[in-house]
Amino acid sequence: MNIEMTVAAGAGLSAAFGAAAALCLAPRLRRILVELCGTEARADFWSAFSLLMLILTPAVFALVGVDFASVEGPGRRLFYQFRWGAFGLLFAVAGLGAVLSRFAETRGAR
User: Fold this and answer.
1) Which end of the chain, N or C, is less surrounded by CB atoms within 10 Å?
2) What b/e string do you get for 64-102 counting C-beta neighbours within 10 Å, with b at 16 or more?
């Protein structure tokens, strides 16, 4: 497998990992956003935005986190990409949680 295919596979794997997390969080996130945003239209926008970030952030981290020229072998490249993708997903989920908790704090618990 050449380096381009390995890079594409690693980014795709990381995006799929993010998509699985997005699918898990989607219904819960939407309910919270409807309550916090006040209207369904606003909640729909922020839900779509948040889910897209959960998918794209791991893929971006997987692409920029590895110096592909210095890593030997497709297996190691995939491992490093997936590791960076998992870090990107953690970053995205933690950031989303921080923003939502701050927003919920200012709106007051209901």
Assistant:
1) C
2) ebbeeeebeebeebbebbbbbbbbbbeebbeebeeebee
Q: Is 75 helix (H, G, I), strand (E, B) or coil?
A: helix
Quick one: which H or E segment has residue 17?
helix 3-37
Structure pTM?
0.82
CA 51, 12, 21, 77 torsion-angle sign: negative
* Residue position matching structure tokens 């390995």: 6
Contacts of 105 (CB under 8 A, 6+ apart): none
Report how far Cα 51 is from the mean position of its chain's Cα atoms: 7
pLDDT tens sequence across 20-67:
999 999 999 999 999 998 899 999 999 999 999 999 999 999 988 777
- Percentage of residues of the chain with pLDDT beyond 70: 95
Cα(75)–Cα(81) distance, integer angstroms: 10
